Amino acid sequence: MRYLWLLLIPFILFLIRYATEEKSEHKTKSACIHKEQTFHLDPNSPKFFEDYVFNVIKYGSSSLGFPTKMEGGYVSDEDAKKIAAYLATLQGFKPSHPQWVKEGAALYYGNCTGCHQKGVKSFPDLTRKPLLGIEKIISKQESSAPSAKRGE
After folding, report:
1. Is pLDDT at 149 greater than 70 in this prediction?
2. What is the pTM of this model?
3. What's the domain range around 85?
4. Is residue 121, in this structure, part of any structural domain at all?
5. Region 67-83: what's the mean pLDDT?
6. Contacts 24+ apart (CB under 8 A), 106-112
7. What does the pLDDT read at residue 102?
8. How many domains are there within the chain?
9. DSSP code at position 32
């Protein structure tokens, strides 16, 4: 019996390490995606908007600094794209796939409004223009942009 425990200890340690590495890799990937978007796309463009929404749905909101963190993966990638297309219309953008808007609206009201409805303080309002996360990205870009020197 003692030998069985000696064999199980390394296996348990392996499982613990595997579980922790997977979570930290997910968080790093999420942060990189949001950081990458910040510098390579225009935050006022429809493509940026849809990519932003898709990535938050897929990877979560941990890199955005909100008080309540949303884990990613509540819906499939395809459904996340449809929700992003619907939300783009709420921002006044022409969605990349207009045929997804109707189904995206149903998915949004079925999956997102439980937390993201107006008046729920711990979750951002997804009908707000611009979205709070995009507003944070814009202000971060403006604060990190080199200021123009006088006289040049």
Report:
1. no
2. 0.66
3. 27-143
4. yes
5. 89
6. 107/75, 107/79, 107/82, 107/83, 108/83, 111/74, 111/75, 111/79, 111/83, 112/83
7. 97
8. 1
9. H
